[in-house]
Design brief:
single chain
Length: about 350
């Protein structure tokens, strides 16, 4: 079985993997149709991921790409899933079984074996995957694979900015200066925007300045701001109110990883964000239920999940496409890999 992987930094390749076994109870064997590559995975080709975490690639346990994927169930060991049904898989959740999974954190796993992203296992860039049934989420056949794959809050946040939600000369508030927020800061600076990072942690504010923010302040200093746009890039959902308060009457608020307010610690987030200006961008939900809700919302067509500049390539062309994407920064295309011919 072919997989899109990497044994050496900047050398993506097609790797032969053994066929997975038949599923046991509450497991699914899935024929993968397509995977989406997040911006973090393109960074991995460049070596950024491994420099940041101090990790090295073990040639015997190669890095396998595929942040999110769509496929059909070949064999089901779960009474909740019928064979032949289409599902979406997300790297946001870990296997929950291996010794590398962090206790109490559903989406954090330090497992490097066949890993596809910074956290989470496994990578989906291979012809077939065997996963716990709880990692799969049903999607209708009418839902395009490209749209289904766009579930990374970082990648879709980048889409939102690049397709014109923010313009040169405008002011942007980034609520939260973690790795997601800093990626948005770097992109917004390249777009010619004035960026204000807002984070309660001094160390995070220092990192935001290093990432290119013009100003980095704490929440207490944010009152009175009248920004054109604010991006909620914080894992603390209750800070959504701050994103709304720092924008003016005509300002826009982009929610990064907050599925329709259903896991937000606010009674009515819709009252804070006017519906025409609200965008749901991906989901960073810590629970399978939160992710399921986001997929349901995507299926309704009520949110703008437009992919800015898609490029769909067969698996044979994927290694070169990955290298090309890593050479131009930010990537000029949103890359999807067709796995249907890999089996």
């Amino acid at each position: 079985m072919l997989a899109v992987g990497m044994r050496e930094v900047n050398q993506p390749e097609l790797i032969e993997l053994p066929e997975p076994p038949m599923p046991s109870t509450d497991e699914l064997l899935i024929d993968m149709e397509m995977v989406a590559l997040s911006i973090a995975e393109v960074r991995a080709v460049r070596g950024d991921r491994f420099r940041h975490f101090g990790q090295k690639i073990d040639p015997s346990d190669p890095f396998i790409f595929g942040f999110a994927g769509v496929g059909r169930i070949r064999k089901s060991g779960s009474p909740s899933f019928a064979e032949g049904g289409r599902v979406i898989l997300s790297g946001l959740v870990s296997c929950g079984k291996c010794s590398h999974c962090k206790r109490g954190l559903e989406n954090h796993c330090e497992q490097m074996r066949l890993a596809g992203i910074d956290v989470g296992c496994p990578g989906y860039g291979r012809g077939q995957v065997l996963v716990p049934a709880r990692l799969a989420h049903r999607i209708p056949d009418t839902f395009s694979p490209e749209k289904a794959c766009v579930v990374s809050e970082v990648a879709t946040g980048v889409h939102a900015l690049r397709r014109g939600r923010l313009k040169a000369g405008e002011s942007l508030g980034v609520i939260g200066s973690g790795r997601h927020g800093r990626q948005v800061i770097r992109l917004a600076r390249r777009m010619g925007c004035r960026v204000v990072a807002i984070d309660p942690q001094e160390s995070s504010r220092e990192l935001a300045l290093l990432a290119g923010a013009h100003e980095a302040i704490g929440p207490a200093s944010a009152s009175g701001l009248d920004l054109d746009c604010a991006i909620h890039a914080n894992s603390d959902e209750s800070s959504l109110a701050l994103a709304c308060n720092v924008t003016g009457p005509q300002g826009r608020v982009i929610l990064l990883g907050t599925p329709a307010g259903k896991d937000v610690e606010l009674p009515d987030p819709y009252a804070l964000v006017s519906l025409p200006e609200r965008e749901l961008i991906g989901t960073d939900s810590k629970t399978a239920e939160g992710f399921r809700v986001a997929i349901e919302i995507m299926s309704t067509g009520e949110e703008n999940w437009e992919v800015w500049n898609p490029r769909r390539v067969p698996i044979q062309e994927a290694p070169q496409a990955l290298k090309t994407a890593a050479q131009s920064w930010p990537p000029s295309h949103d890359l999807f890999i067709d796995l249907s011919g890999s089996r």
